[in-house]
Amino acid sequence: MTAARLSLVALAVLAGCRAPTPPVPDPSPLVASVEAVVARYPGATVAVAVRRAAPGDTIVYRRNADRPFHAASTMKVGVMVEAFRQVEAGRRAWDDPVRVENRFRSIVDGSEYRIEDDTDDGLYALQGQDVTFRDLVERAITTSSNLATNLLIGLVTADSVQATMDRLEAPDLRVLRGVEDLKAFRAGLSNATTANALATVLEAIRDGRAVSPAADAEMRDILDDQAFNEMIPAGLPPGTRVAHKTGWITEIHHDAAIVYPTEGAPYVLVILTEGIADREASARLGAEITRAVHTALAG
Q1: CATH number assigned to the domain with residue range 25-90+158-298, chosen from the 4 options 3.50.50.60, 3.40.50.300, 1.20.1250.20, 3.40.710.10
Q2: What are phi and psi of 104, to 5 degrees?
Q3: Left, alpha or beta for 81 (phi > 0: left; psi -120 to 50: alpha)?
Q4: Alpha-carbon distance 194 to 201, whole Å?
Q5: C-alpha radius of gyration, the chain, whole number
Q6: Is 53 exposed, middle or buried (0-12, 13-18, 19+ CB in 10 A)?
Q7: What's the rounded Cα separation, in Å, for the pair 287 and 34?
C-alpha cells in the first residue's frame, strides 16, 4: 500500500473516531416566546437578531433581521470601531487634543449647523477648549454624546467608518454623516442599520476580530459603561454583564448588546423597534424580548 493510501486510511480512521457533533438546540421555544411578546405591541415594527457561539452550540435567531431601520445612536458603535482602528494603525493617539466646537457642515450643501439636542451636557461647557480623542470616544458611547460623535466623524470621516463596516461584512450598518444634519435627513440621507449588521459588528468585538483582541477588550469595557439601561439590561437578571449601545429618536428605539450570562456562553442580542411613540413602552417591549431570549438561552 502506498504512503498516500496509508495517509488516507489513517485520516478516515481518525474521522470515524471523532465525537459526533451535538445537535443544534431547537429554536422553536425562543421563536414562540419572542412572537408572543411582539404580539402585545401591534403598532410596532420589531427586528431581533440573536447569536451565540460555543463549542458544539450555535444558535442564530432572526426576526426582520435584514429590514433597514434608522440607526439612531447605534451607529456610534461603528464610529468607535473606526476610532480604535486608526489608533491601532498609528494614525491617531488617545491623548491627541481635539478642540470642542459646535459647528458642522451638512453633507447636502456644506451649510453650517449645530447640535441642538443631546444627552450629554458636560461637553458643551468645554467649548473652545481641548479634550482628548479618547474622551470623545468614551462620551460618544457611554453618554451617547452627539457633539462628541460629530467631532469624531470630522476626524475619522464617515467614509472610513463605512469602509471598516464593509470590511467586517456589515455593509448594512450605513454611516453617511454626523448627527442632526437636518438637511440630509429631509433629503433621505440618514444613517441606517439592520439587526444583522449590528449583530455582525458586535460578534466581531466579542470575539476580538473587529480591530485586535486588546482593542476589542477595551471597546467591550466602554460599552459596559453605557449610561442608558432601560431596554436590554432591564430584561436580564441583576448583575448580568451587558456591553451595549442604545439609540432612539422619535418612534425609534434600539439596543444592541453582548450579554454575558453567569452560566453559559456570551451571546449577541440586537433589538430594533419602530412605531412606538412612548419611549417607556418601547423600552418595556425590548426588556420583555430580552427576558424571553435570556430564558431560552440561559435558562
Answers
A1: 3.40.710.10
A2: -140, 165
A3: alpha
A4: 11
A5: 21
A6: middle
A7: 11
- Its sign, for the CA torsion 199, 85, 240, 281, is negative
Q: Single out the residue of 46, 120, 41 nearest to residue 76, CA to CA.
A: 120
Quick one: cell of 173?
Answer: 450598518
Instruction: Give the C-alpha separation, 40 to 285, whole Å.
Output: 9
pLDDT tier at 265, thresholds 50, 70, 90: confident
Beta strands 267-274; 252-260: pairing state: antiparallel
Per DSSP (E only), the strands in the chain are 45-54, 57-63, 69-70, 97-99, 104-105, 112-113, 130-132, 192-193, 241-249, 252-260, 267-274
Q: Where are the domains of the chain?
A: 25-90+158-298
Residue type, 184: A
Q: Which residue has the cell 440621507?
A: 189
Q: What pLDDT, on the 0 to 100 scale, is given for residue 128?
A: 96
pTM of the model as a whole: 0.89
SS (H, E, C) 148-202: HHHHHHHHHCHHHHHHHHHHCCCCCCECCCCCCCHHHHHCCCCCEECHHHHHHHH
Q: Mean pLDDT over all residues of the chain?
A: 90
Residue written as grid cell 455593509: 171
